[in-house]
Every structure is written in C-alpha cells, then in structure tokens.
C-alpha cells in the first residue's frame, strides 16, 4: 500500500491580479514506511505540498491520497479528524504553547482527540522520555533550548500515533550539533516505529540520509532519487529549453559548461565568498539576496575542468550544484 499518491496536483493562489501556481501538475508517490526528503529552491512548492499532504490546505485541481484516504472533497471536520488520526507535524518554529510545560504541550493533541487524562499523561511521559527529555518534562518552552523545544515538538507530533510524519525544515532554526541530534531522532523514528516520514529541507546532509528525494522546481517534480539512484531526468533551470530529440553530448574537458547553484546549506557565507571571488562584478552585500532566490548561474560557458573544480568548491561549502553543458542549449 502506498503512503502517498498525488496525481496532477495543482495549487493556484491569487495575489491581486496575479496568479501564482505554487504547484503545477505535480505527480508523486511514496511507499509506506519510507523516509523521504522534499528539496528545491525557495518558491518551488515544497511547503505547499506539505500543507496539502497534511490536510491543512486543499488543491485547486488534481488529487491527493494518504494511506488510502482521499483528501479531495473532505469537509473541514473530516480533514480535522484526518489530521488527528493520521498525520503528525513538526515545524521549523516549534509552535509550542508558552504557558504549558513540555509534557502538557505533548498532551494537547491527545486532549483534542478526547483521550482520557490518565492515558494522556502516561503517553506524554513515554514520548518525552523517547526524545531524551524525561528530566525536562515540567519545564516551559522559554526554559528550554531550541533543540529541546524541537524535541518536544517531535514528541507532540507522535502523540496520536500517526502513520505519516511531516517535518518542515525541522533543523532550520538549530545549530549544527543540535541539528544532528534532532536528525538522529527522526531517522530512528522511521526505522523503529514504521512511520512514513517526509522532510522539507535545505540541508543537503539531512536530505542525503533519506531513502527517497523529491526535487521540486516551479511547482513540478524535477527529479526523484531512490537510494542514490536517479530515476527521473535531472533538474534543469526553467529558462533552459532542452532539445527533445538531440543526440547525447559527449562530455570532454573542453566541453563548455555553466555552473548553477541549486541550493545552499548552512555555509552560505562560504558560498558568498566563492561567488564574490569568481564574480567580482557582483557586490559582496548583493550576493546573499541572490542566494535567497535560487537557482543561480555563477558562470556560463567555462571549460569543463574549471567548472568541475568550481563545483567541488561549492559542494565543500554545502551547496548543491549542477553543471549544464553549454553545447546542449539551443
């Protein structure tokens, strides 16, 4: 049984007179019990997809099914029941209630599900222990570190024993060491509790630890990778119109290429320094703004050897980089 089946999923928003297609005919599927990452530049549709899978939003067209439940046509009451019974959410900003203790925050979804007080407390204590915070259960969020708050959020997400856990940038507000600890918890949940886990992340290290990766771009699926094996043609920048019937291009050291940054990780400052070095025409203080609107072409038409060298430098700085052969372009 598939955990997720989305067919021709489209979500259109209207901003004034402008129509914005956050998702544009997206089709994805995921087997139950898998650990998957959704990656892509800002504005590619990642968070919109998560909202639709979680029943927090409804599609403009297309269909989405989670564990055999068709979400299309559900009433708000049905969607609320679906969220309580099937889905757990972990957000970048934690969203804990400041006036409640850690244990009481974990109890909130159980109370909404009308679980008895005794069972609520028993299960909340079990989950707080699971995430390693048994000694902090009586502390309020403002008394906890960022990593501890995210652990509480994970415990809360597990309260109603969900089949699907959706985590939107779960390590985004954490330092590297704390992020590793939270990542380990999520990985173990997937292995030990047979929960399907879907992560939205800009962190390449986290994405690379998943079994399945969906790369989105322009609201469409650009690439699906399973166990490091590419099964869908790799992502291309939207403005590049690739020839449909051309012969494969032989790649040599002299083949000209363009260097494209698809994502940046925690070391965006390192990427900024490299870009400023090879593109002195760009102001040092302008580059961070550019990196917030990826993909970005650093160089175009450079020798393959130089492009490969530059790609490695960016990857060492936690960037995801693609080389596009200039001779493939129209």
Description:
The structure is a single chain. The chain is α/β, with parallel strands linked by helices. It folds into two domains: 2-230, Rossmann fold (3-Layer(aba) Sandwich), CATH 3.40.50; 257-328, Ribosomal protein L7/L12, C-terminal domain/Adaptor protein ClpS (Ribosomal Protein L30, Chain: A, 2-Layer Sandwich). It is built from ten helices and 14 strands. It has helices at residues 46-53, 76-86, 102-112, 117-130, 146-157, 176-193, 204-207, 268-278, 287-291, 304-316; strands at 2-15, 18-31, 35-39, 61-66, 69-70, 87-91, 164-168, 196-200, 212-217, 220-226, 229-230, 257-264, 296-302, 319-325. The strands form three sheets. The protein has a seven-stranded mixed sheet, sandwiched between helices. The chain has a four-stranded antiparallel sheet with strand order 2-1-4-5, with helices on one face. It has a three-stranded antiparallel sheet with strand order 13-12-14, with helices on one face. Helix 6 (176-193) links the parallel strand 7 (164-168) and strand 8 (196-200). Helix 4 packs across helix 5 (146-157) and helix 5 packs parallel to helix 6 (176-193). The radius of gyration is 22 Å and the shape is globular. Residues 229-253 have low confidence and may be disordered.
Write the topology of this structure:
Layout (H helix, E strand, L loop, with lengths): L1 E14 L2 E14 L3 E5 L6 H8 L7 E6 L2 E2 L5 H11 E5 L10 H11 L4 H14 L15 H12 L6 E5 L7 H18 L2 E5 L3 H4 L4 E6 L2 E7 L2 E2 L26 E8 L3 H11 L8 H5 L4 E7 L1 H13 L2 E7 L5
Parallel strand pairs: 3-8, 3-9, 6-7, 7-8
Antiparallel strand pairs: 1-2, 1-4, 4-5, 9-10, 10-11, 12-13, 12-14
Helix pairs in contact: 3-4, 3-5, 4-5, 5-6
């Amino acid at each position: 049984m598939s955990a997720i089946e989305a067919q021709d999923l489209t979500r259109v928003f209207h901003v004034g007179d402008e129509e914005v297609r956050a998702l544009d005919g997206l089709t994805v599927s995921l087997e139950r019990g898998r650990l998957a990452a959704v990656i892509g530049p800002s504005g590619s549709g990642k968070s919109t997809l998560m909202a639709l899978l979680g029943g927090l939003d409804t599609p403009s067209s297309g269909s989405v099914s989670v564990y055999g439940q068709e979400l299309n046509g559900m009433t708000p009451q049905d969607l609320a029941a679906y969220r309580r019974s099937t889905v757990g959410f972990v957000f970048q900003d934690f969203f804990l209630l400041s006036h409640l203790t850690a244990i009481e925050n974990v109890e909130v979804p159980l109370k909404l599900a009308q679980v008895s007080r005794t069972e609520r407390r028993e299960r909340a204590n079990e989950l707080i222990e699971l995430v390693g915070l048994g000694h902090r259960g009586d502390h309020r969020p403002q008394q906890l570190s960022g990593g501890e708050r995210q652990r509480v959020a994970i415990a809360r997400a597990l309260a109603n024993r969900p089949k699907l856990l959706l985590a939107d940038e779960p390590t985004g507000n954490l330092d590297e060491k704390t992020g590793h600890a939270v990542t380990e918890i999520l990985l173990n949940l997937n292995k030990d509790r047979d929960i399907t886990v879907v992560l939205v992340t800009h962190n390449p290290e986290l994405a690379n630890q998943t079994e399945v990766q969906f790369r989105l771009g322009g609201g469409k699926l650009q690439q699906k990778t399973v166990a490091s094996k590419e099964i869908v043609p790799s992502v291309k920048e939207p403005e590049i119109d690739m020839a449909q019937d051309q012969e494969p291009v032989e790649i040599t050291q002299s083949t000209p290429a363009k260097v494209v940054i698809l994502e940046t990780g925690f070391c965006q400052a390192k990427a900024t320094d490299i870009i400023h070095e090879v593109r002195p025409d760009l102001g040092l203080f302008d580059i961070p703004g550019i990196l917030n609107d990826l993909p970005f072409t650093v160089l175009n038409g450079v020798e393959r050897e130089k492009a490969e060298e530059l790609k490695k430098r960016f990857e060492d700085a936690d960037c995801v980089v693609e080389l596009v052969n200039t001779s493939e372009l129209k």
